[in-house]
Amino acid sequence: MNEHRPAVLNCIGLDLKEVGAIQGIVIAGRNSGYNAEHLRRLKANDRGPIKVMTYDDLLIGLGNLIATFEKL
């Protein structure tokens, strides 16, 4: 996406001036059934603006967000 930034933004209907950075997330299923060490390495590898997560990571993040709002 970074190599063809203008084309990518044009395809999704955004102007170059409207976007500061492009980031991506790969959702790799659930944590269960995977080797814990393999998952740790998969998530820890530096892929620049691309992050690898699982649905379980999203659920944990959502739970943390809800807990933060409940404290307000």
Word description of this protein:
The mean pLDDT is 91. The protein has a two-stranded parallel ribbon with strand order 1-2. Strand 1, helix 2 and strand 2 form a beta-alpha-beta unit. The relative contact order is 0.15. It is flat. It contains 3 helices and 2 strands, in the order H-E-H-E-H. By secondary structure, it is mostly helical. The termini are far apart.
What is the topology?
Elements: H1 5-11, E1 24-27, H2 36-44, E2 50-53, H3 55-71
Parallel strand pairs: 1-2
Can I get a quick summary?
The chain is mostly helical and 72 residues long.
Mean pLDDT: 91
Name the strands of the widest sheet in spatial order: 1-2
The class by helix and strand makeup works out as: mainly alpha
Approximate shape: flat
Name its key features.
72 residues, mainly alpha, 3 helices, 2 strands, 46% helix, 11% strand
